[in-house]
């Protein structure tokens, strides 16, 4: 497969996950999110879309760098599987939190997501350091989101 096609697929996959997540957010949120208690340090709603768009692009580019890199098949397969698992977990958090309104389970799930992002970073670092570093803003944001999710669960 040509590299330009790998790049296109790598960027599209997270964007598809984002689109599905947005659907569940829009259809599940309604007035619920506006009515729950949130800490004073909760970011404004307008901030989430640009942050996640940038993160999904870097997540895709990181995957592309791994996909196109010559590396031992086992290492590459593990890295790519971990990447796919964390992307699915990312989507599930959105469904659990915004659509199902399950704050406790969203807190548990985001912890699992964080672990898989870390595992992906470690696996990527064995193949391509740049790809690993591209995921650092993502794990930082998910760390913040995890603390926020936990806080929202506790105060509600």
The CATH architecture would be Up-down Bundle
Molecular shape: elongated
Radius of gyration based on Cα positions: 16 Å
CATH domain fold name: Ferritin
Uncertain segments:
none
The major β-sheet equals: none
Tell me the β content: under 5%
According to CATH, the homologous superfamily is: TspO/MBR protein
Broad structural category: mainly alpha
Features:
156 residues; mainly alpha; Ferritin; 7 helices
Write the layout of secondary structure elements.
Elements: H1 3-29, H2 32-35, H3 45-68, H4 73-99, H5 103-125, H6 129-134, H7 136-155
Helix pairs in contact: 1-3, 1-4, 4-5, 5-7
Task: Describe what you observe in this structure.
- The chain is mainly α and 156 residues long.
- The chain has one domain (3-155): TspO/MBR protein (Ferritin, Up-down Bundle).
- The chain is 84% helix and 0% strand.
- The chain is built from seven helices and no strands.
- Helix 5 (103-125) runs antiparallel to helix 7 (136-155).
- The protein is elongated, with a radius of gyration of 16 Å.
- The model has no long low-confidence stretch (mean pLDDT 95).
